[in-house]
Design the sequence.
């Protein structure tokens, strides 16, 4: 993988992580969450980011 592809991939992944944060914030502001639900939502978002990162790590860009 070339340096340009690595840089582009890093930018794409950062955008995806930022979008996940926006999704969390949108849910958190629109729903009344207790601490357990909030913790579960955070864990779900983190797990999604981790799984997505692992999956996309070895896939080439189009």
Sequence:
């Amino acid at each position: 993988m070339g340096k340009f592809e690595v840089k582009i991939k890093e930018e794409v992944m950062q955008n995806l992580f930022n979008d996940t944060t926006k999704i969390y914030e949108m849910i958190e502001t629109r729903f009344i969450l207790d601490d357990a639900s909030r913790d579960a939502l955070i864990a779900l978002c983190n797990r999604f980011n981790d799984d997505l990162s692992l999956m996309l790590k070895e896939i080439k860009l189009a």
Q: What stands out?
A: The two ends are 13 Å apart (CA to CA).
